[in-house]
What we know:
The structure is a homodimer. Chain A is of the alpha/beta class. Chain A folds into two domains: about 10-135 and about 280-295, 2-keto-3-deoxy-galactonokinase, substrate binding domain (Nucleotidyltransferase, domain 5), CATH 3.30.420.300; about 165-280, 2-keto-3-deoxy-galactonokinase, C-terminal domain (Nucleotidyltransferase, domain 5, 2-Layer Sandwich). Chain A contains nine helices and 14 strands. Chain A has helices at about 50-60, 90-95, 125-135, 165-175, 190-205, 205-220, 225-245, 260-270, 280-295; strands spanning about 10-15, 20-25, 30-40, 65-70, 85, 100, 105, 110-115, 115-120, 140-145, 150-155, 160-165, 250-255, 275-280. At the A-B interface, β9, β12, α4, α6 and α7 of A face β9, β12, α4, α6 and α7 of B. Chains A, B: This is 2-dehydro-3-deoxygalactonokinase. Chains A, B: It comes from Sphingomonas changbaiensis NBRC 104936. Chains A, B: Keywords: Kinase, Transferase. Chains A, B: One of its GO terms (molecular function) is 2-dehydro-3-deoxygalactonokinase activity.
Amino acid sequence: MAGRFDWSDGFIAVDWGTTNRRAWAVAANGETRELLDDGLGVLKVEPGGFPSEIAALRQQHGDRPILLAGMIGSNRGWIEAAYVPAPATLDGIVDAMRWPEDGVCIVPGVSYRYGRDADVMRGEEVQIFGGLAAGLQPDGLLCHPGTHAKWVRLQGRAIGPFRTVMTGELFSTLSRHGILMDRLQGKVVPNDNFRAGAEHGLGCDDLTAELFSIRARYLLNVGACDDASYASGLLIGADVRIGLAFGGEGPVALVGRPDLTALYAEALSLAGREARQIDGERAFLLGARAIAERLT
Amino acid sequence: MAGRFDWSDGFIAVDWGTTNRRAWAVAANGETRELLDDGLGVLKVEPGGFPSEIAALRQQHGDRPILLAGMIGSNRGWIEAAYVPAPATLDGIVDAMRWPEDGVCIVPGVSYRYGRDADVMRGEEVQIFGGLAAGLQPDGLLCHPGTHAKWVRLQGRAIGPFRTVMTGELFSTLSRHGILMDRLQGKVVPNDNFRAGAEHGLGCDDLTAELFSIRARYLLNVGACDDASYASGLLIGADVRIGLAFGGEGPVALVGRPDLTALYAEALSLAGREARQIDGERAFLLGARAIAERLT
């Protein structure tokens, strides 16, 4: 698989999502440098257009091996890299990678089946192994907040059972459509309103009713409120309630965008749980390096 | 208030919502006839344009008194008819009506305050009093399904405490935006998939996670499923769980669109509760007549 490329000389790591693409150069000594952050998501690449995008990357940034992760490996991407069933180890992930070209690998996602139910992740797995490389407990509970938040029980450095909560998508959708739209335009911050929402979400299972209350309180002028932060707290509180019920003990690892991990840390604190925050970008690059080390 | 109009000679009843308008003629003997069902919601009427719309109605359908209900009485409508606090009796509603012109009344909505929380309805109150006129128990639990489903505890023929659940809006939004959109295009019917979703929604408080499972099961091809009916069942099951926790005993009155009341009746049956369904159009006209009787 290594072909003419030597991964230990450094490589390019790309987080290639549905609507965005980010790329970094990872040097032989581990130093990283961001190369691009653009809107060329996989849906914007013409059918058959990936080889020329890879050639362009190499022309601009050097003739190096390239690691691709994210939706690039989905059925809407370049070549489908089938989900690895949980529990998924880093070695299992590396074994299941696809190699569409010499020196180009695509990281697969992870699936989890339990009874008649199922879950999937694609893209978060690199960050999770990066978090483990950064020293996370090999059997702890991990949360990756985002459009589709993932709660993962780690099992001996493997991705064990996990559950996805649609928190980010719901907040984003409610702030762009429907009756709450006008009330959710502010910036979300972990203030008293966020904490009040999170307390409610942690304690009550009436999310779809409490969301409407935001509108009713506004119409009746009951207490001034930063409704964007309250609604975010409500959704994240419910998310944390679902995640904690999912199992695991000790501090919760939060891997992702720092503004999001800060909000989840606040909600976890209200639930009496400690959190350790790891920047998702750093985790992605550590995970990419951990994969590359297995390719040399 | 009666002016030159005699309500006992018959009147026009209009359910004037944000995006739609429906009107009926109600004859002196109680017979009703639909006059129109069009897209002239209150947001489509130019500022100051309501008097000429009323004149047009009278020119086309006879010089009769007109009862207006729904968002026409909101701050985005013609003249705001302030919410009547619950418990709200029919007499209290009639007393609080606004009369923008001789022979034209606007029905107010109802508000409910409890501690630091609040709820509102506008439009459903006419159907609720119509349901009572149709013989509903004066102290029972009532549900009006829709974009914003209302659960109402009736108290001696008054609208008592109530709670709104955003079930219809969430289903509609998820079927038009986001990752579940493709899976929610089918027609919702109370089939086995609907019942499986409702059972889950009645029993579990993980709605925002279970919604994502719909996507994961599809990607992993775990069991063929009518996902639109499953998702609707899930949301309605959670809705019924919230509504039943809200209080009340005996059969639940379901007042609204027959296709929706049928789905809620199915979910209630899974929860071991009987339901009595009343067509919302019939209830609206009965409620309008009950108001008109108080104006003669």
